[in-house]
Write a structure and sequence with these properties.
Blueprint lengths: L3 E4 L3 E2 L4 E8 L21 E8 L2 E7 L9 E7 L4 E9 L4 E10 L1
Parallel strand pairs: 2-8
Antiparallel strand pairs: 1-3, 3-6, 4-5, 4-7, 7-8
Length: about 110
């Protein structure tokens, strides 16, 4: 399992804009690099990131082989109600990882 880091406020005033930063550790092999035997290493990248706020999709990113080895994404959203944000990373070879973070709106 990859290590995911999420930086966002735990509480926010109603109607405020909050900044969310995510980082996931992943080797991200492009599929264009030769291995020790000279054959190309198989591609192994995170291809998609999605964030849901209480079940509603608020952010989506499609990643390509040119993405960094440890994809770092920053985005904002409006704090509308207390709830859970679900962060999901998907990729090659069946890779999928999700993490939930609670947000309390005051």
């Amino acid at each position: 399992m990859a290590r995911a880091l999420i930086n966002m406020p735990k509480t926010a005033p109603a109607g405020s804009v909050i900044e969310i930063k995510t980082l996931i550790s992943h080797p991200m092999e492009t599929g264009y690099r030769p291995g020790p035997d000279g054959r190309l290493r198989p591609r192994d990248i995170i291809t998609e990131f999605v964030c849901h706020y209480d079940g509603a999709e608020i952010f989506r990113a499609e990643l390509s082989p040119a993405s960094a080895a440890n994809p770092y994404l920053t985005f904002t959203t409006l704090a509308t109600a207390s709830g859970t944000l679900r962060f999901t990373w998907s990729g090659d070879n069946g890779f999928s990882q999700s993490q939930d973070v609670a947000l309390t709106v005051t």
